[in-house]
UniProtKB/TrEMBL annotation:
Domain of life: Bacteria
Family under the similarity heading: Belongs to the UPF0312 family.
Name of the protein this chain belongs to: YceI family protein
PANTHER family in the record: PROTEIN YCEI
Domain Lipid/polyisoprenoid-binding YceI-like: 11-179
Length: 182
């Protein structure tokens, strides 16, 4: 059940200082490899009927703890994000459902490597409050799971004793503090 009055009336932009977006994928079958996007922009726009989401992140803003050469050659290279040909990841949703219990659901159009797939997203939201600067701030905690192969991220290597070097299931997590635009 969605809320009868939208708690996010107007337009809210992501506060980049108090927000983060990360992805995690199984590495060598044992641990989760995690990385974040350092440069993320997103807006939640609502009118009387619906809340919409628009967001993007430059691929080259991926931050990982590894030598720069690995990141630039492998992660940004043709086997993975192919940043030279597909520099931006985007997400949009026309109907962000805010439920009375503080949960949120949406069906997002996620575009990676110029491939767009519909992705179910779940999470929670915090109703906006008036902050110290006088503007209203709220928050969204969103999660989704995608198969990286659906976006053309097909690289794989077999492990010597069986199994694969990189998992196909990728967990996406967004912690978004949003501030009302004037």
């Amino acid at each position: 059940m969605t809320t009868s009055t939208l708690p996010f009336a107007g337009t809210y932009a992501v506060d980049p200082i108090h927000s983060s977006v990360e992805f995690a994928v199984r590495h060598m079958g044992v641990s989760l490899f995690r990385a974040t996007f350092e440069d993320v922009s997103a807006r939640f726009v609502s009118d009387d009927a619906a809340v919409r989401l628009e967001g993007s992140a430059p691929v080259e803003s991926v931050s990982i703890r590894s030598p720069r050469e690995f990141r630039d050659h492998v992660v940004f290279g043709a086997d993975f994000f192919d940043a030279g040909n597909h520099p931006t990841i985007t997400v949009s949703a026309d109907d962000v459902a805010l439920h009375d219990d503080g949960t949120v659901t949406l069906d997002a159009a996620l575009t990676i490597r110029s491939v767009t797939r519909q992705v179910p997203v779940t999470g929670t939201y915090r109703t906006p409050v008036v902050a110290l600067d006088g503007r209203r701030r709220g928050a969204f905690e969103l999660t989704a799971t995608v198969d990286r192969r659906d976006f053309g991220l097909d690289w794989q290597a077999p492990l010597p004793a069986g199994g694969e070097a990189l998992g196909n299931e990728v967990q996406l997590t967004a912690h978004l503090e949003v501030v009302e635009e004037a």
